[in-house]
Amino acid sequence: MSAEATSPGAPIRRRGRPRIDLRRLGRVALLGPVSRDRLPDAIGHVAEAHRAHHPDADLSILHRAYVLAESSHRGQTRKSGEPYITHPLAVTLILAQLGAETTTLTASLLHDTVEDTDVTLDQVREQFGKEVCYLVDGVTKLEKVDYGAAAEPETFRKMLVATGDDVRVMSIKLADRLHNMRTLGVMRPEKQARIAKVTRDVLIPLAERLGVQALKTELEDLVFAILHPEEYERTRALIAAATARTDGSGATPQDPLAVIAENVTTVLREAGIPAEVLIRPRHFVSVHRVGVKRGELRGTDFGRLLVLVGEDADCYAVLGELHTCFTPVISEFKDFIAAPKFNLYQSLHTAVVGEDGAVAEVLIRTHRMHKVAEAGVIALGNPYAADGGAGPQTAEPADGERADPTRPGWLSRLLAWQQSAPDPDTFWTTLRADLAQDREITVFRTDGGTLGLPAGASCVDAAYAQYGVEAHTCIGARVNGRLATLGTVLSDGDTVQLLLAEDAASGPSPDWLDHARTPAARIAITGWLDTHPEDTRSPHGGRPAQAGPEQPPQGHTRPGPRPPEPLAGPAATPDGAANAVVDRPDATVRLAGCCTPAPPDAVTGFVVRGGAVTVHRLECAAVTRMRSVGRMPVGVSWGDDIECRVTLVAESFGRPRLLADLTEAIATADVAIISATVEPPSEQRVRHTYTLQLPDPAALPALMRAMRDVPGVYDVSRARRPVTVA
Predict the structure, then answer these.
(1) Catalytic residue among 41, 48, 116, 262
(2) Catalytic residue among 48, 70, 112, 115
(3) Is residue 115 among the annotated active site residues?
(4) What confidence category does residue 412 fall into, taking pLDDT thresholds of 50, 70 and 90?
(5) With 60 as the cut, is the pLDDT of residue 626 above it?
(6) Is the pTM of this model over 0.85?
(7) Catalytic (active site) residue 116
(8) Tens digit of pLDDT for each residue in 185-208?
C-alpha cells in the first residue's frame, strides 16, 4: 500500500494489480466448492500478496484459519449486506500487502471469531498455538453487558497492555479499523462522527507512533472526509484540478514536479548513482495542511520527489549531488537517518529549486527504509522469532521473557501510567492527551542513562520518569550543569540531574501540575494531593529547617515548627556571631548589616556605642563616613571558623513564582536562609534581600551566579545599605 492521494472509501492499490472485489470473493467463499488440496479462491489474493514479501511462507495454516473463519461466520452479514467473511479477508489482505508475517495473518483471519461466533480461545489455542491465541484475545472487545459505558476505554486498555507484550496486536487493530472506516458509509451520521473522532484521537496517533504510515495516511483522509466534509471537498477539487493538468500519473512535461524529477534523474545517472526517482503524490490531509500553511498552493505542492537507493551511504551521495546541482532550501534539510524518529522512520529530507524557480521537496531513503516508512513495525516481520523471520517463535530466551525490539519508550511509559489510572474515564481522557503529544525527546541522566520524554516535558516529568513516586521529594534540578526550576522545559539532548530532599515526608505542590506533561507525573501528583489534603493548605514548600517567610512551592512537608518571621526594615538584619578577631580585647564584635562582610573580604572595624566593634568591608560607604567624623579604625582579621553570614540583594523584573524560584536556587546550594524581605514592586522591578548562612565563603560566587541564572533576575550583589553613625 502507498500513501498516495486517493478517494476515501476506495482501497489504495499498486498500479497494475487487478481490483480485488471482496464482495464477490465473499460470495464465492460461501457458495463455491473448495478443493481440499488448494487454497480457497477467496484468499488467493492474500496468498499472492503474502508470498510477494515472504516467498517461503507456509500457507497451510492460512488455509486452516480461513476454513474456520468462513464456517464460523457463515450466515452472518455486515450492515452493508455483504457476507461477514469479507471483513476478516479485507483486514488480512491489508496486512499481507504491508508485509505482515504468517502468524499475524492467521490471527487476522480469526480476529472476530471469538467475539462474534461460538469459537473459543481454547479452540484457537489448540488448533493454531498460543501466539495466534494471544493475538486474537488481544483484539477481542470486552462485552458491554459486563462493562457498560466503560467497555470501549477498558477494551483499549486491554488492547494496549496486550500490545506491550506483542506489538502485532495493534497491527491487526489498525488494519481492522481501516477497513471499518472504508465501509463506514452505511452507518448513521452521528455514529460515523463518533467512530471517526476515536480514530482521530487514538488510532491515528498509534499508527503514527508505530510508524505504519500507509495506514495512518488513509485513516487521516477518511476521518477528514467525515469530520470536515466541506474542507475535504475543496481539497478534493484542488487535487482533481492539479491532476487534470497532467495525464493522471504526474509524468507530463507541463507538471513542474515532473520536470524537476527528470532533471534529478539525469543528475544522478551522470553521477553514477543507481537510484529510482518517483513522484509521490500527497494525500488529502497533507495537501490541506500545506494549503493552510502557505495560503496558495503551488504546482509542486501536490507531491514530493522520492529517491530510492540501495545503501545508506548512497543517500548522502544523492544529497550531495542535489545540493551541488540545484539550489537547496537549507531550512528544509532534516537528517532522520543519523537521528531516526521515535517511530522507526528514517529518511533525508531536503528541498531544491528548479530552473523556473519551482521548489520541490525531496525524500531520500533506501528501499529498506521505504518499506519501514510505509509499514513501520509490520515491516519487521515477527520480532519475537529468533531469526526475525516470518515463522512463529520456537524458543524463549533463558530468562523466560521475550525481549521486544519494537517496544519504544512511549509504549513503556503508557503501560506504566495506565496501571495507576484509577477509573476508565481518567484512563480514556489521559490516553487521548498522551497520544496528542506527537514528538519525543531524549534527555541524559548524570549516571549515564537516558530518559525518553514527550516534547515539552519539564524537570517534573523527568523526576517521575526516573524516580517514580520518590520524585515527590524533588526540590530542584540541574540542567546542563546549571541550577534550574522544576518547571524548566527540557530540550532534546539536555543533561538533567534531579535533586531530592532527605525528608521522606515531603510531597509535591499543586503548582507541579502546571508543569507536568506526562500522564505518569500527573497521576502521581494528583494521587498524592488527594491523599494529603491537609498538606495542600500550606502556601509554603521546600525544607522548613531553612525556611524564610516565603518558600518556593516545590514541595510540601507535614506540619512542623513555624519558620521565623522576617525582621522589619532593611537595616534590621541580625548580625549574628561574628567570625572576626579585632585588636580590642574583650570587645563584642558585630558584622555590619550594611555590607555584611565575609571571609576573605578586606575589612576594618569601628567602635560604636556600648563599646562593641562593628566590622565593615573596606569599600563600604560607612567606612568613609566613620573616618569623616574622626572615628579611628580598629584592626580586624578573620578567625578559623569558615561559616559566615552574608546579605545579598537580587534585582529583578516582577513575575509569578519569582520569589519561589530564587529561594529554591538558594536552598539547592545548601545555604540557610536567615531572613528574607521583598520590597514593593516599582515600575515592574522588585528588590529581594536575603541574609544567608554559608557553610563556606568560597561558595559565595557560585551562589550569586545561580541566583543570577533565575529567569527575571538581572543583578545580584552584596548588600550596601546606608547606616547612621553610632
Answers:
(1) 116
(2) 115
(3) yes
(4) low
(5) yes
(6) no
(7) yes
(8) 888 999 999 999 989 888 888 888
